[in-house]
Amino acid sequence: MLKLYGFAASNYFNMVKLALLEKQLSFEVVPLFGCQSPEVLAVSARGKVPVLGTDDGFISETDVILRYIEETSPQRPLLPESPFARAQLWTIAKEIELYIELPARLCYAEVIFGGRPTPADLKAKARRDLIKGFTALAQRGRFAPYVAGERFTVADLYFLYSVDLARQVGEQLFELDLLEGMPKAQALLARLAQNPNAQRVAADRDADWPVFMARIKGLGRTAS
Ligand SMILES: N[C@@H](CCC(=O)N[C@@H](CS)C(=O)NCC(=O)O)C(=O)O
User: Is any atom of ligand 1 closer than 6 Å to the C-beta of 216?
Assistant: First the structure.
C-alpha cells in the first residue's frame, strides 16, 4: 500500500492527500515532520514533506509525486489527455508554486504562525512577486468552473492549498485582496471548500494544527 509521509498542517502534504482521495487510492499516513534529522533525511534528502512511500522506494517533491500517482493510477484522471493540455496545466501548477506559494511562504512565520515579523526586504519582494503571480493566474486560469476548465485537475490542488494562504498574506500584510477582480476564482475557492474529500483534509488539518504549532514553538523556529 502507498504510504504518505508528512503532517496534516502542511499544504503540500494536503495536495497529495487530496489527489489520493480523489483517485480513491488506498494509502496509509505516516507522520513525519520536515527537518534535517538523520531519520528524516533517510526518507527525504532535502528534509521536506510530503514523501510518497512506494514498493520501489521513496518519492519526494509534490509535482513529482502527483505525476507518479497519475502514471501508476490513471483512473479518475487529474491531468488531461493531450500532451499540450498537460503542459499548459503543469505551467499553471508550477507558476502557482513558484510565484504564489513561495513568495507567500516568506511571510508565513508572521502571518500564519504568529511569529517573527517578516524582514522589510523580504516583505517587499513577497508583495511584488505575489502581485505578478496573481496577474499570471488571472491570465492563465479559466475558472470554468475549475482552474483549467471543466474538470478538477492538479492545478486545483495547487490553487486550493496555495491561494488561500497567499490571500491571508495579502490581506494581513499588504491590505490587498489578491483575488480582487477574479470573481470566478473566488467562486472556485468556495466550490472546492464544499468538496467532501477537501473537507476531510481540512478537518484533519484543523485537528493537527495545535500539535503542529506546539511543535514549532517548542523547536523555537518557524516551519519552512
Ligand atoms: N518543493 C516541495 C515543498 C514542500 C515543503 O516546503 N514542505 C514543507 C512543509 S509544508 C516542509 O517539509 N518544510 C520543512 C523544511 O523545509 O525543513 C514540494 O513540492 O513538495
Answer: no
Structural domains for the chain: 2-77+207-219 (3.40.30.10), 83-193 (1.20.1050.10)
pTM for the structure as a whole: 0.96
For the stretch 63-103, pLDDT in tens is 999 999 999 999 999 999 999 999 999 999 999 999 999 99
Q: Ligand 1: which of 4, 5, 10, 12 to mutate, most ligand atoms within 8 Å of CB?
A: 12
Residue 220 has pLDDT above 80, yes or no: no
Cβ 112 under 6 angstroms from ligand 1: no
Do residues 78 and 90 touch, judged by C-beta distance below 8 A? Answer: no
- Tell me which residue of 204, 153, 212, 117 sits closest to 22, measured CA to CA: 153
CA–centroid distance, residue 181 to ligand 1 (Å): 30
Q: Is the CB of 48 under 6 A from ligand 1?
A: yes
Query: Strands across the sheet with 2-6, in order?
Result: 27-31, 2-6, 51-54, 57-60
